[in-house]
Amino acid sequence: MAEGRETTLIGDRYTSRSRLLSLWKGAFIYDELVTGAWLRYCGAGARTRVVSVHLELPSGIVTLHSPAGDVFFHRASKALGA
Questions:
Q1: How many other CB atoms are there within 10 angstroms of residue 19's CB atom?
Q2: pTM tops 0.70
Q3: Burial level of 57, CB count in 10 A (0-12/13-18/19+)?
Q4: Tens-of-pLDDT digits for all 82 residues of the chain?
């Protein structure tokens, strides 16, 4: 779980990439941009017994763990979502 010093190391912008399958589009990749503030909130203020946030060092990948599965967030380039 991202706590204390680990939470402060979460940056400003992250993206999560999913490979999805659609009946209309076929296979495609979906990128979701999230803020570091949201990830820090999940790691510090909104944690529960079933949801946690973990910062992988030195890669900087933030992992959101939940019963539905893990979601991985990579640092977003400044150009993405600008």
A1: 8
A2: no
A3: exposed
A4: 445 566 677 888 888 887 778 788 788 878 888 888 888 777 765 555 667 777 787 788 888 887 777 888 888 875 444 4
| Cross-strand bridge partners of residue 18 | 30
- What does the alpha-carbon distance between residue 76 and residue 29 come to, in Å, rounded to a whole number? 15
**How many whole angstroms separate alpha carbon 63 and alpha carbon 60?**
10
Structure tokens of 69? 């599965």
Nearest to 60 by CA among 6, 4, 5, 1: 6
CA separation for the pair 7, 39 (Å, rounded): 9
